[in-house]
Amino acid sequence: MPLLVSITRSKSSAAITGMHVVLRPPVSADFEPWSRLRHESRNFLKPWEPTWAPDELSKDAFRRRLRRYAQAERDGTGHIFFIFDKKTGALMGGCQLSNIRQGVAQSAATLGYWMGERYAGKGMMTDAVQALTRYCVNKLGLHRIEAACLPDNAASRRVLTKAGFVEEGVARKYLKINGQWRDHLLFAIIEDDMSASRTQKG
Predict the structure, then answer these.
(1) Rounded CA gap, 182 and 188, in Å?
(2) pTM here?
(3) Which of 95, 106, 43 is nearest to 69 (CA)?
(4) pLDDT band at 90; cut points 50, 70, 90
(5) Residue 108 CB coordination number (10 Å)
(6) What backbone phi and psi angles, to 5 degrees, belong to 87?
(7) Are 94 and 113 in contact (CB under 8 A)?
(8) I need a labelling partner for 118 at 20 to 30 A (CA). Which of 47, 83, 89, 111 fits?
């Protein structure tokens, strides 16, 4: 049964559209579909995420998330988007931009994302990441977007490569994932990469 929600309810950032997805910031009415999707995808997501809190899927925890997200957006340091199927309105996953640096850097230090198990492997996350990187450059004025993934996360590596990100190296013990400090592959895309891609397609 699809987890259907409105994709136009947000009062903050405008929606971002891809070929098959729509991204918008989460709102309180998203709690039920978010909680169900995360719950049913728990075993699928667990190897790639920080250890879940005991109240990870509670309504109070979701409200706290929304407050943190709103503060980051006000501060200009981060943006959170949920990913929806453009045709059905089903909630499929989420993307996060964090540690945004302004001034001389003009970059988003981290792009993170997750996809519900039932929607994985269908190209939806690649579409979402491509749409979000265009938004970062065209709307947020960022020059560089960075991302990291575990070396054994083949699906995430494919997403980043297909979206035009370039592998730049390895960060040792970079993030604590599922209770362990893990090495990560570092990727990045810059505005010039996107311009070159458009030229090649044209």
Answers:
(1) 19
(2) 0.88
(3) 95
(4) very high
(5) 26
(6) -80, -45
(7) yes
(8) 111
